[in-house]
């Protein structure tokens, strides 16, 4: 009996390792292209409006979001509700905590991250990079801190919209990729495409 179980576990492990090490070049191509264009657009906006190290549009948490939104598109954390809600809630909390405790970083930093996690859990918008968005509001440059609640609108909301729009385009370019994972979105999309085709003919 134990030998059969060991053999079964061995076969399962072998299969998992095989699946994990498969290289799907199409998948990698679209993940690369989507993330490259989204971050490229944000970097371009950054280069037009700001110089030097005044990183305002290009915050670090967008890099982490790109990994999820373009690399693991079926993950619950990658879905639009989580991407948008997680960042906005965390940005708002980060700014609020900074205003309440501007000079006590050892309390402000953990408080902003912890409150963000709990509120994302409550609102079902858990998005791991949101914790970084809250933290950036506390430890970011003076340029970011001076934005106050405008930080929630720009760079966070504008940046998230760019990431989302790019994801909706590039994550649906092939039949293998489908984003978001909620079927209702694709049903609405089909109806819209059908209406457009009908009105065009």
Automatic annotation (TrEMBL):
Domain of life according to the entry: Bacteria
Metal-binding is among the record's keywords: no
Keyword Hydrolase among UniProt keywords: no
UniProt entry keywords in alphabetical sequence: Membrane, Transmembrane, Transmembrane helix
Domain HPP transmembrane region: 23-180
Any one Pfam family match given in the protein's UniProt record, by short name: TM_HPP
Residues spanning the membrane: 29-49, 55-73, 104-122, 149-170
Name by which UniProt lists this protein: HPP family protein
């Amino acid at each position: 009996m134990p030998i059969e179980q060991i053999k079964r576990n061995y076969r399962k492990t072998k299969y998992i390792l095989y699946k994990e090490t498969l290289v799907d070049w199409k998948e990698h191509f679209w993940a690369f292209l989507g993330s490259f264009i989204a971050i490229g657009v944000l970097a371009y906006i950054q280069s037009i409006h700001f110089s030097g190290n005044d990183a305002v549009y290009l915050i670090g948490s967008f890099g982490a979001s790109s990994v999820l939104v373009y690399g693991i598109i079926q993950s619950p954390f990658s879905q639009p509700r989580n991407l948008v809600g997680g960042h906005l809630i965390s940005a708002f909390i980060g700014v609020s905590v900074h205003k309440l405790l501007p000079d006590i970083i050892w309390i402000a930093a953990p408080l902003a991250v912890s409150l963000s996690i709990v509120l994302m859990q409550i609102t079902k918008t858990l998005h791991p990079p949101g914790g970084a968005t809250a933290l950036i509001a506390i430890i970011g440059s003076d340029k970011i801190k001076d934005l106050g609640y405008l930080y929630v609108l720009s760079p966070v909301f504008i940046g998230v919209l760019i990431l989302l729009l790019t994801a909706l385009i590039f994550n649906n370019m092939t039949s293998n990729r489908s984003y978001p994972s909620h079927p209702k979105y694709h049903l609405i999309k089909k109806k819209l495409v059908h209406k457009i085709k009908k009105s065009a003919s």
